[in-house]
Specification:
It is built from 18 helices and 15 strands. The chain is an alpha/beta fold. It folds into three domains: 111 residues, 3-Layer(aba) Sandwich (Rossmann fold), CATH 3.40.50.2300; 170 residues, 3-Layer(aba) Sandwich (Rossmann fold); 126 residues, Helicase, Ruva Protein, domain 3 (Orthogonal Bundle). Strands 6-9-12-5-13 form a five-stranded parallel β-sheet. It has a four-stranded parallel β-sheet with strand order 1-2-3-4. A two-stranded antiparallel sheet has the order 7-8. The protein starts with 7 loop residues before the first strand and ends with a helix. Bound molecules: adenosine-5'-triphosphate.
Length: 421
């Protein structure tokens, strides 16, 4: 179902006949009201009835404060409910009798605003492989199956996880991410499971762990391969029991979130090396998604670069363009830091370049490290191959033109290409 004109319906004590007529009119303007579980929308239409206890209304809407609420109520309830407005929980009010066109416009505006507020990532996939990956992600988004995403740092693992969340029935609830790398075990434990006030010296306040924070939504455990072995056991227990207990508490809280684990290390390798529990691996790795390094999807480099420049233009009102040389260098670079590095390179070049055209030099790309350990002859051959490849690409694939540019005969160029194949 298209998410474009979806909104969630909420009501404490059912809908009146008048409200149902209103919904029919909205439907005729293209609005859909899917069930909560299928609804990808972040905007909700809350119906408040004259007999509703306003305190309860407030509590319930505040509990779903990530939703953007538009309230339909009676005129005399407006002043009391306006507190919700000042708390930032309600986006707008419409009082009965409602003007349908105006309400429809408010809902549309709400959808736009919410999307911007959360900066939901738009899928920008420009290669066949990546489109396939995102298609797969969309297919599994509707389920609660555990997913493991593997790929190098900066390649877009979290982006993909957010995409799954955004396309799931859980999108109105929080997306919470915890990076398990580089934190001492006791801190990770605290972040995962939380603690009660007074659970240890210095625990001045109760703290909800990420399982609780992600209630109803999605929990991304990034760099799960770095989770200490002793905590892997606790984590598995949470998954099996579907409940979590804060440190210092006797109470188990039900866990209601989809788990996505990401790692730049291959979990199956860690299992065989004894660094990751096999039972946890099988529990998590129901669906495996592989995000390739940017260097393995070179056809995406230039479209992504253009996409980042467009984003820059939208944000700063200045559209910068890439010179031919800059395009060529971007295409040739080895991108050890993947999409994150590409994004940083473009933002910095767009900011620092004096003119509207970004030159090759302004990209400030360091040269790829050649293997100094390899013999000189191999390095020369590698350099020659790269130069030829570059010349052929720069000449739109025409080998005759490339040979002319390189100052060698057509036969020599063909021979060298054959040798490198
Ligand atoms: N398909 C995409 N289109 C646009 N931007 C993307 C895409 N994939 C990733 N990005 C951007 O690239 C940057 C790095 O992505 P992300 O944080 O998802 O990588 P990661 O693999 O999770 O990195 P790390 O392992 O270091 O946490 C982010 O700013 C993200 O918005």
């Amino acid at each position: 179902m298209s998410q474009q004109k979806q909104c969630r319906i909420w009501s404490l004590s059912g809908l009146s006949v008048e409200d149902r007529v209103l919904l029919d009119s909205l439907a005729s303007l293209g609005w859909a009201f899917p069930a909560e579980a299928e609804c990808g929308s972040m905007v909700g239409l809350a119906f408040v009835q004259p007999k509703d206890e306003l305190r309860k209304v407030m509590e319930q809407l505040a509990a779903h404060s990530r939703m953007l609420w538009i309230v339909v109520c009676d005129n005399n309830q407006l002043s009391e409910l306006s507190r919700l407005f000042s708390l930032g929980i309600v986006f707008d009010f419409h009082h009965r009798p409602v003007q349908i066109e105006l309400l429809s416009a408010t809902l549309g505006h709400g959808l736009g605003v919410h999307k911007e507020l959360l900066q939901l990532p738009e899928p920008s996939t420009f290669s066949h492989d990546m489109t396939g990956l995102y298609d797969k992600a969309r297919r599994i988004a509707g389920t609660d199956i555990s997913v493991v995403i593997h790929g190098p740092s900066g390649s877009g693992k979290e982006y993909l996880a957010r995409y799954i969340h955004q396309h799931s029935g859980r999108s109105a609830a929080p997306f919470v991410s915890l990076n398990c790398a580089g934190l001492p075990a006791n801190l990770i434990q605290d972040e995962l499971f939380g603690h009660e006030k007074g659970a240890f010296t210095g625990a001045n306040q109760a703290h909800a762990g990420v399982f609780e924070q992600a209630k109803g939504g999605t929990l991304l455990l990034d760099e799960i391969g770095d989770l200490p072995l002793e905590l892997q056991g606790n984590f598995l227990q949470v998954l099996q029991q579907k409940s979590v207990r804060r440190l210092g508490s006797a109470r188990y809280v039900p866990v209601d979130c989809r788990i996505i684990a990401a790692s730049h290390k291959k979990l199956s390798d860690l299992v065989s090396q004894g660094g990751f529990r096999e039972d946890l691996f099988y529990r998590l790795n129901v669906i495996h998604l592989e995000v390739p390094a940017l260097a393995q999807r070179r056809d995406e480099v230039l479209p992504l670069a253009e996409y980042f420049l467009e984003q820059y233009a939208e944000r700063y009102g200045v559209r910068k363009h890439l010179s031919t040389e800059a395009r060529f260098l971007l295409q040739e670079y080895h991108w050890p830091g993947n999409i994150r590095q590409l994004q940083n390179v473009l933002i910095s070049a767009a900011t620092l370049s004096d003119t509207s055209i970004i030159s090759g030099q302004e990209l400030n790309l360091e040269h790829p490290q050649t293997e100094l350990a390899s013999p000189l002859a191999d390095q020369v051959r590698l350099f020659e191959q790269q130069t030829i490849l570059r010349a052929v690409r720069m000449n739109g694939g025409c080998r005759n033109k490339a040979a002319r540019q390189l100052g060698i005969s057509r036969h020599t160029l063909y021979r060298k290409i054959r040798q490198s194949d």
